[in-house]
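User: Batch of two.

Assistant: Item 1 of 2:
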Amino acid sequence: MKADLVFINGEVITMDADSRIEEAVAIKENRIILVGSTLEVQQLIDSKTEVIDLCGKTLLPGFIDAHIHLVMYGLNQLAISCKAQNITSNEDIKQELRKKVQTVPKGQWIRAWGFNETTIKENRYLSIKELDEISSEHPIMITRTCGHISIVNSKALELAEIDANTSNPDGGVIERDANGALTGKLIEKANMRMNEIAKYTEVELRQAMKIASDHFVQAGITSIHEAGVSDTDTYRLLQEAVKNKDIAVRVYAIICTLNNSHEFVGKMLSAGVLTGTGDERFKIGPAKIFTDGSSTGPTIATREPYTSNPNDHGILYYSEEEIYRVLGEAHKKGYQITVHAQGDRAIEMYLNCVEKVLNEHPREDHRHRIEHAGISTPDLQDRMKNLGVIPIPNPPFPFEFGDIYVKNYGERVNYMYPVRDFIDKGIICAGGSDAPVTDYNPLIGIHTAVNRKSSSNSEIGVNQKVTILEAIKIYTINGAYASFEEDIKGSLEVGKLADLVVLDSSILSQNNTSIKDLKVEMTIIDGQILYKNEAVVKA
């Protein structure tokens, strides 16, 4: 048997059980048929074999992002980006909004995303008055970078039937000023509800999904764990897009909607669609609900007050009993379960529920997860280990948000997304970007896990630094483990899916401080080269 595609003379990081570094890989159809020396692989070459000489460059398993929002990221590409280089002030944002007003029909939504009041010149949110001055005939919504807070104009509030007499939803805040007037700022569940009002069309959703998939493939991502969509229709469209190959990355779809997540979980439980249902391209993931808020908002639920505000402990979406009721039923029926939990208080509540359901209905190899696991103190780490829970930290967060974390949580940054502690305690953790909250590029996540410095070069919990190979592991084989798929992907081994990524140089020879500057040269999914960075290849 001869190979269809081979890679020779490379730094082949296998991520197998022995962490072998080899030279070459051979592929037949969509499977790996040999991993070894260049000489060994050359025996499988004939006139039809495509041969790629790596010239010492790194070949890795395709990156697996274990917590990302493909749909949300794609939709954001259709909106104004407050992270664009030309936007440094609220005046810049207003200028972009005015441009949109000139092109968008009256009554249709104008959206912006990625807003961060801590990095904008004025260090404040836009006011409802400022947005109303831009347009009273278009609903306007500006979403904060965390995705948990937004600022809207009066037209948007009108469409959502929110006025000065509207009560705060449980787990959310409709902000009012000192006189009781609406400010347009919506926090947590109030923001999630507005997302439902500001719906996109099916045409926009399909376009967004393809854009996101293309961008992810270019970053070397071959599999994702979709962390939650807006509604059930979007969940259906996601499956259709995979089937129609508009989405090239493999999808492990977490059962979750961004608002009233418990309702969607209930529907899926009633339908009997179990975790693991699907195939190698699309599978149903764990049942998930939100428990608290955003690490940068800040709105996460903490056991001790915020360092920045001694009167604030954050926001909880559900009581411990409610978490147990929803996810306990899911566990009982055989589902993998997980929660969005950033603060130590929220993490503790969830672990209490996991402990209770495992005592009542023991199950081996359940692989229950915690999305984010933001402030994971040693006592919580020990409980994760004892309960067999898989944390899904966000390695790139300290790079973009580290300085905010120091301000809001002080010394607790030493236990935020604590990958070093997880590894040392034998806790399997998998890395997720949570894009579009921050950059989806796995190399930035690996870089930050290795260096633990913010973009301003401040140290953010340097006690949690890991090695390059350890960082790669959480973006490859550990991601596969978190979705029960380590037998088919996540490492370069014979019989596994041919999902690979080529970097433009050797990552193991790289200075730790320049890992983020590496580029993806090629991405292979199912044995097919889906992306080739021609500029890098020619160089």
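Item 2 of 2:
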Amino acid sequence: MPSTPIRLQGRSLVEGAAEGSLLFADVGLSFWGGVDPATGEVIDRHHPLSGERLAGRVLAIPSGRGSCTGSSVLMELISNGHAPAALVLAEADEILTLGVLVAEVVFQRSLPVLCIGSEAFSGLRGQGFGRIEGNRLTLSGLRPNDQWRGENTCAQPFRPSSICLNERDQALLDGVHGKAAQVAIKIVLRMADIQGAGQLLDITQAHIDGCIYTGPASLRFAEQLVQWGAKVCVPTTLNSISVDQRRWRELGVDPALGEPASALGDAYMAMGAQLSFTCAPYLLDTAPAAGEQIVWAESNAVVYANSVLGARTQKYPDFLDICIALCGRAPLAGCHLDDQRKAGLIVEVHRLESADDSFYPLLGYHVGGLTGRRIPLIRGLEDAAPTLDDLKAFGAAFATTSAAPLFHIAGVTPEAIDPAQVLDHDTVLPGKTVDATGLLASWRELNSARHRHVDVVSLGNPHFSLSEFATLANLCAGRTRHPDVVVAITCGRAVLEQARQAGHLEAIEAFGATLVTDTCWCMLGEPVIPPAATTLMTNSAKYAHYAPGLVGRGVHFASLGDCVEAACTATASGQPPQWLQPIARKGNPSHV
């Protein structure tokens, strides 16, 4: 006998109707780096859905996580026919929802997005089939026998928002400032409705992540804005693009990628954005001050801006970033508000003596996996004095596994100098503890290589800072890489010039490293990574997480010093760092 259907009510983030087999996971999924935009396969090799295909299925995940570029990937999937039939979320996710909204505008195609809450979401496990109609979800073990098919291929008509608009907002909405600005404010207002914002606020600057080329749809969107006369109205920087714009031919990049990726960067510059091409805009002299209301995308940049600089931005999805830059107005919601910057979870860290620089990226990766969407207050590092590079590495790794746009470290980050000021005493959860055993488990998760040989050493994810160049120059002085090992460093043009003027590059170039600007390791592939290469080594927990899915290679994660050593010997130790060795010896002492 067939089971009785289960019917649930939720909040429709994007209206529509669809049905399909239910694909459930209780772990958030980053579409960028986690889903192939050309095929819809889940390529995050750390995710429980790894290897599954999304096309035509009702995807049920708690939320997105990780990269702001998830919106672009989802838009590509909608445009090429490999998207899920629908999304069912435990919590509203702006990144994924925005990808659907932009697909409506550009391609007149869409899919329903339904938020059902955490309690109901846990009951989806084991269900076989889902049907969405508006704000209703019907679940059953088997596909119904009727011939109903949901259709949601046309854009939803724009509905006037109840948000309080000023005179300029209304003029934008009326098209006084042109077609591009009109479309932009409509998208901003739809997102403001989803976020529950009652009004918009002025922002002082933007950082655009949508300049990453995910496929033809991302270029079509940008070029359409240019054709509509788009011009940014606030100072705007650009994230890393998908190629080194000056050298992609020299590096052997296929023109099928190099030409459209470069054209995408050009399109955003045609809108008035600066030629910055860095995933670390906080290293530029335009970095915002504490309390400044900004719109940044790129997950690590968002986390750094909020947490380390004390500026105020949400984790803005690709495409919403440029829409806000075109109208200068953003929803007054999320981390723009005082009460939304409070910590909802306390994380106690048992500090380890003699830890090297792999400690902070590993800690960020581990803490991000504990927090979900909650903002953590991390205690136990009050006397540790992490450097800005430590906080950069921590934040990038944290943003990889967490959906939260902000972290606080007691006694370290600016808003948590007095930790009591950042606690949400009404909703804070019981504390979680991080010790060496937990960090060792995360280290083993990041180390996916199956042998000790090293073919490529990957540095600069996020982009290298001037101080990292100085440290690397000291490590490389008087040494030369193994002839069979590629050593490549990604960085922004501005920092590269600073490093050259400071005299740091001479030792690094003599060592045999390749310097790549404009792009980042999350976009690099063959031939920068030789086709025959099987194993990478990196000091970035972010890249160690994404690389197996993005480039299909095993990874060793280690300190910067160990990366240089491996570059000279073409061999990794395959063992945890010295500061984790006592714990490792109590369990399985070997890795590879």
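DSSP finds 18 helices and 22 strands in the chain.
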